Amino acid sequence: xxxxxxxxxxxxxxxxxxxxxxxxxxxxxxxxMPGILTPGQEYLLQLQAGCSQGNxxxxxxxxxxxxxxxxxxxxxxxxxxxxxxxxFTLSCSKWVDDIExxxxxxxxxxxxxxxxxxxxxxxxxxxxxxxxxxxxxxVNASDFLIARVCDSLGACxxxxxxxxxxxxxxxxxx
Length: 174
Fold this sequence. Notes:
Elements: E1 2-10, E2 42-51, E3 56-64, E4 73-77, E5 80-82, E6 87-93, E7 105-112, E8 115-121, E9 130-134, E10 143-150, E11 156-157, E12 162-163, E13 165-167
Parallel strand pairs: 5-13
Antiparallel strand pairs: 1-2, 2-3, 4-6, 6-9, 7-8, 7-10, 10-11, 10-12
């Protein structure tokens, strides 16, 4: 009959806090809740195991938590235009990340500030940091253009959104 015990040797969490994990510290597996570990931090965990015959062992595991890209900006030019006529340039520049987390990937969306979960994609995930698009007249003062910058391991940053105004195209007279 094996007995297990997990402990944190280095890191910024309290492993004894039951709210940060979904398994017991006496389980052979340790499952932490999402978002508990701090991006950019390193954690050293130790699992000790022993049995009733007196045999024991331990193993250490180092977890390095990926951090999202940083330092960049998201710019839209122009910020006003005419639907289907004005080409808007969406640009993410000067984003940096650890070299092993490259290449960076970009996606662009349009949404309403009050419901950031209901974003409409303007592009798929691309490795190019500039997107040129024509917008529809449905964009109004409460609509925003949003960029996401992600590294190859899935850590993402969302820079501040940019408000744009897109007017209806002029009516054609027949």
